């Protein structure tokens, strides 16, 4: 009996017990070494060893994922690859530790839903993910971080609500809103704010070549929006996909007053010369000025 206890301790790392299940965790490598090290394993051990490597759980707890671990026989990815399926819908998932040692957090990275890609493609993707983990990366953590980054459309709404509308005149705010709603959002609104590229903004700018004034204002508004996002900590400061794009040449616009406009101007001048036009001074403004003659 003491031998059996010591033997089990060499294979089992942890035993987890909850209300519905008992889970025994250990190293597959150590188990396989023990299985093939001797031809005279105890009967009780060899009987269980064929079931350890991978099998569906006999019972399904609806409150917990129904896990089907990949085996070394059916999934040649690596000795420690953990690819399993979850119900409703079934998905291919990779499990790994983000770091070294038993204290490192366990991560689960969902590859894709079953049916969207083949098992072979899921295994190939699992190789890529585990290779990234081996180089010190944390793909699941990075994916979680990216989920918190707003889209360009969401960033535009926040930019207007927190910066432009409280700090700019109504006319300026309306101009910014028009540029964002009519030009920027339809073109790149669904793109994650940190993924927007200079090529995308350059393409939008080129499409507006017929209206060079508006095209150039798109660059200015996008640049201002990303400066706000950097100061607010939404994305990395200094990010500006509109930087480096050459602006269109804007021609000076010249026009002449219409007949009605000339008539209104003449009436105003006559009134000023005869009756005078009162000058209403807003004393509430700090720079208000008026003269007493």
Main beta sheet = 3 strands, antiparallel
Number of strands: 5
Spatial shape: elongated
How many helices in DSSP terms?
10
Task: Return Rg in Å.
Answer: 34 Å
Q: What's the level 1 CATH class of the largest domain?
A: Alpha Beta
- The average pLDDT value, as a whole number, equals 76
> Uncertain segments of ≥5 residues (pLDDT<50)?
38-63, 71-81, 83-88
**What is the H/E string?**
HEEHHEEEHHHHHHH
| CATH fold annotation of the largest domain | Double Stranded RNA Binding Domain
Helical/strand content category: mainly alpha
Q: Name the strands of the widest sheet in spatial order.
A: 3-4-5
Beta percentage is 5-15%
- Give the % helix: 40-55%
How many domains? The number is 3
Cα distance spanning the termini: 114 Å
| CATH architectural label of the largest domain | 2-Layer Sandwich
Structure description:
- There is one protein chain.
- With 293 residues, this protein is mainly alpha-helical.
- The chain folds into three domains: 1-53, no CATH class; 56-147, Double Stranded RNA Binding Domain (2-Layer Sandwich), CATH 3.30.160; 152-231.
- Helices cover 46% and strands 10% of the residues.
- The protein contains ten helices and five strands; from the N terminus they run αββααβββααααααα.
- A three-stranded antiparallel β-sheet has the order 3-4-5. A two-stranded antiparallel sheet has the order 1-2.
- A hairpin with a 4-residue loop joins strand 1 and strand 2.
- The longest helix has 20 residues, at 212-231.
- The chain is elongated and about 110 Å long.
- It starts with a helix and ends in a 19-residue tail after the last helix.
């Amino acid at each position: 009996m003491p031998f059996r206890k010591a033997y089990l301790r060499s294979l089992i790392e942890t035993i987890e017990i909850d209300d519905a299940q008992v889970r025994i965790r250990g190293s597959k490598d150590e188990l396989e070494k023990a299985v093939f090290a001797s031809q005279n394993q105890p009967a009780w051990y060899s009987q269980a060893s064929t079931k350890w490597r991978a099998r569906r759980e006999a019972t399904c707890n609806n409150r917990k994922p129904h896990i089907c671990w990949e085996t070394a026989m059916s999934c040649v990815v690596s000795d420690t690859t953990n690819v399993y399926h979850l119900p409703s819908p079934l998905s291919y998932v990779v499990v790994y530790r983000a770091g070294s040692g038993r204290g490192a957090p366990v991560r689960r990275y969902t590859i894709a839903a079953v049916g969207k890609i083949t098992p072979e493609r899921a295994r190939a993707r699992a190789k890529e993910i585990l290779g990234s983990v081996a180089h010190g990366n944390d793909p699941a953590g990075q994916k979680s971080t990216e989920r918190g980054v707003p889209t360009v459309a969401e960033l535009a709404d926040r930019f207007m609500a927190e910066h432009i509308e409280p700090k700019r005149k109504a006319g300026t705010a309306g101009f910014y809103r028009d540029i964002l709603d009519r030009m920027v959002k339809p073109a790149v609104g669904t793109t994650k704010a940190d993924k927007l590229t200079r090529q995308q903004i350059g393409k939008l700018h080129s499409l507006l070549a017929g209206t060079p004034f508006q095209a150039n204002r798109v660059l200015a508004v996008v640049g201002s929006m990303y400066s706000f996002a950097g100061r607010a900590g939404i994305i990395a400061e200094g990010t500006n996909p509109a930087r480096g794009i050459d602006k269109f040449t804007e021609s000076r616009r010249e026009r002449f007053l219409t007949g009605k406009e000339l008539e209104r101007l003449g009436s105003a001048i006559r009134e000023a010369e005869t009756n005078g036009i009162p000058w209403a001074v807003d004393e509430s403004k700090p720079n208000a000025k008026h003269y007493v003659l």
